[in-house]
Design a protein that fits this description.
The protein is mostly helical. It contains 16 helices and no strands. It has a single domain, classed as Growth Hormone, Chain: A. The two termini are 23 Å apart.
């Protein structure tokens, strides 16, 4: 259905509204999830629980929101991305609100882990998949701009949660966050649209026809059986064992080295700053230098950043690590969906991304906990840091050896 008047040209290409909606979903969704560290001590004290049992609340949520894309992605390809984005933000808001009235830790698991996990799992992959279809030439930039919401949310939402906790208590803070996610996030999710053809538009707002690649592409089954997907999955799985270690262990590492708690907590904010910069600027660079080559650069950059961490022992050197790591981590998150679109076309892009992200779900569940067990045995983070660097080196090698585009019919479907 063409919603434009004949000959009329919209002032702003609607694809940028889709990007804005995806940005808002990432900002509120992941920002709310990453506020958990601000609530940890409060939950531990009020429920008399161990730190490990409270930390499991976030681990379960992370596993769900990264793993659920394997279901929400294909369904979004079939039924459209908007319903899943809206449902996701509603679940997120309701989950946070219900956590505010939890009477025990089991109810926090049910409210937070299921609400945040299922909510983000429903909204994340469909939203970022929709962005891919609206752009070709500027796909890396648009994808980076959308997922920059994660980095900015990581920077803004945890300090906001701390202020709300000080003013309203942890229960009041969860209620406010839930209301914001439900009202603003749900409202922005209504702007998500699956495909520019629904508005009689072409990708990038081009006037000429011929952007047929968006309608074509590989099936999910054909994609996941291809050498390129297997290589991508292996690279992301292996790197994910190390990628999420800093989000859990950087602050305790800093505290072990005598850094004040307030300064140690700010290091996560520095990761957020770097991540925002990486998602925005490296996405643009990827459009120019090639997105596959850029993905290789992200793995090399993350490996190099862990080398900085290995030799850091004060606040300034750790801040340098946090920023550099954030830049390349953010670039990885931004470039990866665009690479999937380049390889396999737009017809089932959300489903393919959803399957790919199960690799990160496994990494989230295993990597940080394995690093913790290694520290318990050795009382040192040396082995986890070295292993995290090594996983990214292996991922870079896998991408470097990946089958080239000429051997993949799916890739030719999406060249324009």
């Amino acid at each position: 259905m063409n919603l434009r008047m004949p000959g009329a040209k919209p002032r702003v290409f609607y694809g940028w509204w889709v990007v804005a909606a995806a940005f808002a979903i990432m900002f509120l969704g992941f920002g709310s999830a990453y506020t958990f560290s601000a609530f940890l001590d409060q939950l531990q004290r009020d429920f008399g629980a161990s730190r490990g049992s409270v930390s499991l609340v976030f681990s379960l949520a992370g596993f769900l929101y990264l793993g659920l894309g394997v279901v929400s992605g294909p369904l979004a390809d079939r039924f459209g991305s908007r319903p899943f984005a809206v449902i996701g933000m509603v679940l997120l808001g309701v989950g946070l609100a219900l956590a505010s009235v939890a009477r025990n830790l089991i109810e926090v698991y049910a409210a937070y882990s299921l609400g945040v996990g299922l909510g983000l799992g429903c909204a994340y992959v469909p939203a970022i998949g929709a962005v891919q279809r609206w752009f070709v030439r500027r796909r890396g930039f648009a994808s980076g701009l959308a997922v920059a919401g994660i980095g900015l949310g990581t920077l803004v939402m945890p300090p906001l949660a701390s202020l709300l906790i000080d003013a309203l208590g942890w229960r009041g803070a969860y209620l406010v966050l839930g209301a914001v996610a439900l009202l603003f996030g749900g409202g922005m999710a209504l702007l998500i649209e699956n495909d520019p053809r629904g508005r009689g538009l072409n990708p990038d707002g081009d006037e000429q026809a011929g952007q047929t690649a968006q309608a074509g592409g590989a099936s999910v089954r054909d994609a996941i059986r291809s050498g390129r997907f297997i290589s991508l999955y292996a690279a992301c799985l292996i790197c994910s064992f190390g990628v999420f270690v800093p989000f859990v262990h950087l602050v305790p590492f800093a505290r072990d080295h005598g850094i004040a708690a307030s300064m140690a907590a700010l290091l996560l904010g520095v990761i957020g700053i770097g991540s925002t910069a990486g998602r925005f600027f490296l996405g643009t660079i990827a459009d120019r230098m090639g997105r596959e080559r850029s993905l290789l650069m992200m793995f090399v950059g993350m490996a190099a950043s862990f080398s900085i961490w290995a030799f850091s022992a004060n606040a300034w050197s750790l801040a340098v690590f946090a920023f550099v790591y954030g830049v390349f981590y953010g670039g990885w998150v931004a470039v990866l969906p665009a690479v999937v679109m380049d390889y396999f076309g737009g017809r089932n892009v959300s489903g393919i991304i959803g399957v790919l992200y199960t690799s990160a779900a496994i990494g989230t569940l295993i990597g940080p906990s394995a690093a913790g067990f290694a520290f318990d045995l050795s009382h040192s983070y040396e082995l986890p840091i070295i292993a995290s660097a090594a996983t990214n080196v292996v991922a870079a090698v896998i991408v470097a050896l990946m089958p080239r585009a000429a051997s993949q019919p799916a890739t030719r479907l999406c060249r324009v």
